[in-house]
Amino acid sequence: MAGEIDPSELLISDRDRESTVTMLGTAMGQGRITPVEFSERCERAWAARTRAELLAVLVDLPGAPPPELASLVLDVSFGQVRRGGAWPVPELIKIVGMGQRTTLDFTDAVFHVPSVTIQVTGNLSTTRVILPLDAEVDTDRLELVAGSVRERGWVPRRDRAPRGPGRLRRLLPGTPRDQEPPPPAPIFIFLGRATLASVTLWYPRPAKRR
């Protein structure tokens, strides 16, 4: 199907590699692997580019892979699904239920990856995505037949680069100058193919100076 992606081929981040090295250190401390094996596997982990390459160094160890590497599949046919609050965001979210009504609120979400892929294949579905501040969105690979992508809220202008969170923080009153700016919002990549489906993107209003 057009827009399908193999999760094993998703590119990984340095944070993913760090999580894997931590798991290898735990395994060595438990005597499951030797210091030599730990060193060799760490080299492979840091050299890995895809999820499959990274998980290969953990394949014979007990325990699940880091949670941010596991995909989230939402499949509730003609039902409602909501994710909100401080929920951990994986790198791949699949919306597959026919007639599914989905709300993904990323306002207070916890991100471990630089990009989040949202794959929409549920026909007759409606998806509402509440984006974090300064989020970048790519919908070029999302094909909605007899459907549409709508933008609501404080939609950013397309003729200028988005204002970075560090710059915004420096403009806000009462913010210590030596305080570290928050990490940039991840890039949201939408892909997949669905019929009679809609995706609504809600952009937050930037904070105003007093």
Automatic annotation (TrEMBL):
Q: Which domain of life is it from?
A: Bacteria
Q: Pfam families per the record?
A: DUF1707
The record places domain DUF1707 at: 11-62
Q: Where is this region: Disordered?
A: 156-184
Q: Identify this protein by name.
A: DUF1707 domain-containing protein
Q: What's the source species for this entry?
A: Pseudonocardia eucalypti
